[in-house]
Design goal:
Largest sheet: 21 strands, parallel
Protein name: Polygalacturonase
Subcellular location: Secreted, Cell wall
CATH architecture of the largest domain: 3 Solenoid
Oligomer: single chain
Number of helices: 2
Structural class: mainly beta
Radius of gyration: 31 Å
Keywords: Cell wall, Cell wall biogenesis/degradation, Glycosidase, Hydrolase, Secreted
Helix content: 10-25%
GO biological process, one term: carbohydrate metabolic process
Number of domains: 3
Family: Belongs to the glycosyl hydrolase 28 family.
Strand content: 35-45%
Length: about 450
């Protein structure tokens, strides 16, 4: 009996030990499996990172020198060709890469193409330029192209290009950075200096985003627009500093749904819509918003300009929350833009409608702060609104004035200077560089 009881107890103990052992083994297996999974994930991340690093095409591996003297055009072109046909990642490291005019063509294999500019890209001087090129660095048919800083593009405009002012033949000067048919374009944190002509041209690049860029050229440099936008839908310009010799931003025909937010402009010619209708052309611009922007010492602030004899429409335009600091011509809407020649009130005209100037404050460096000069053609200007405007002269002793012709302006809240509109026919003799050349026959209202 005793032996039977002992055997049963030993059997129970053995079963209990076996079960505990099994549980401990299962727990150990679970822990081993967990550790194995963690190691696999870490290894995967490490491999992915190393693959990403190795997939970035460095221009130096293609023979670029980057010493500011040697021509690195061939190395950059070869690096682009490989990046475009494979990984889509191109790197220009620290260095000064001198290149002549180049074209970067797509479509590329990668869904997104990233050009990471860390160093400086410098144009060859004018004396070495082949005149058949009208753009220095030309990107075309590259969707989802991303060019990111903090690198710099040096256009060498001072190497002879700007001497064109002496012969009044600056139209031949090349654009620094041209983008054509690059939908989803993104420009981030780059700097462009001393462009021979305009810094950036965006043409037919729907959904473009430009953020926190810096564009610099001397105030006297000719035709050095900051950003020119044409034939493009859905552009966002967010932040950035533009100091140049012409329009900080120009919005041309075929553009729609343009949003400009938080830009600092000055020196320069302000932010312009147009000119529209030049050489009898039909131009349409729709839905433009300029907001939270500062103009400092510019020739113009916010401006809409159309040329007599053209046709089309500029509509749904809003300028809001703008600061003017010693601006020569803070607010301009004119259908008599005729640079370098006399204007006549001839038909047809580009119609301007539904334009709002709202919450614009600051100072004018000249007596006329608001200029609204419309064509005598019926309904050529309609739906113009001034809302909470307060612009005074930089000299408190000088009164500010307004000029308004051939339209009715709706004023909301306090508007200084007050705008009195007439229906008198108006012919402008003004040039773009001297809007004060308007005839003395125009009427204006003095505001203390």
């Amino acid at each position: 009996m005793y032996d039977q009881i002992r055997s049963k107890v030993m059997m129970n103990l053995s079963v209990s030990h076996f079960e505990n052992f099994t549980k401990r083994s299962a727990s150990a297996n679970h822990m081993t499996l967990l550790i194995t999974c963690i190691l696999m994930v870490v290894g995967f991340i490490t491999i992915s990172q190393s693959q990403h690093i190795s997939s970035e095409i460095d221009v130096n591996t293609f023979g670029a020198i980057g010493n500011g003297i040697t021509d690195d055009k061939m190395a950059l072109q070869n690096a682009w060709n490989v990046a475009c046909s494979s990984t889509g990642n191109l790197k220009l490291p620290i260095g000064n890469f001198v290149v002549g005019p180049m074209t970067f063509s797509g479509p590329c294999k990668a869904k997104t193409v990233v050009v990471n500019v860390i160093g400086t890209v410098t144009a060859i001087p004018m004396k070495n330029w082949n005149t058949k090129y009208n753009t220095w660095l030309n990107f075309q048919h590259v969707d989802n192209l991303v060019i990111t800083g903090p690198g710099k593009f040096e256009g060498q405009g001072g190497s002879g290009w700007w001497n064109c002012k002496k012969t009044n033949n600056c139209e031949r000067n090349p654009t620094a950075l041209g983008f054509h048919h690059c939908n989803g374009l993104k420009l981030r944190g780059i700097t462009s200096k001393n462009a021979p002509r305009n810094h950036i041209s965006i043409n037919a690049c729907d959904g473009a985003i430009v953020s926190n860029i810096t564009l610099i050229a001397p105030m006297e440099s000719p035709n050095t627009d900051g950003i020119d936008i044409s034939a493009t839908n859905g552009v966002h310009v967010n932040g950035g500093h533009i100091h140049t010799g012409d329009d900080c931003i120009a919005i041309n025909g075929g553009s729609s749904n343009i949003n400009i937010n938080g830009v600092f402009c000055g020196p320069g010619h302000g932010i312009s819509i147009g000119s529209l209708g030049r050489n009898g052309k039909t131009d349409i611009v729709r839905n433009v918003t300029v907001i939270n922007t500062t103009f400092n010492g510019t020739q113009n602030g916010v401006r809409i300009k159309t040329v007599p004899g053209g046709s089309g429409l500029a509509t749904d335009i809003k300028f809001r929350n703008i600061i003017m600091m010693a601006v020569e011509n803070p607010i301009i809407l004119t259908q008599f833009y005729c640079p370098h020649k006399k204007c006549s009130d001839k038909k047809p005209v580009v119609r301007v409608s539904d334009v709002t100037f709202e919450d614009i404050h600051g100072t004018s460096s000249k007596p006329i702060a608001i200029r609204i000069t419309c064509s005598k053609s019926l309904n050529s200007c309609a739906g113009i609104t001034l809302n909470r405007i307060n612009i005074r002269h930089v000299n408190p002793k000088i009164k500010v004035q307004s000029i308004c012709h051939n339209t009715k302006v709706r004023a909301i809240g306090v508007v200084l200077p007050y705008t009195f509109c007439t229906t008198k026919s108006f012919i402008s003799m003004a040039l773009d560089h001297d809007l004060d050349a308007i005839t003395d026959k125009q009427s204006s209202i003095d505001i203390a």
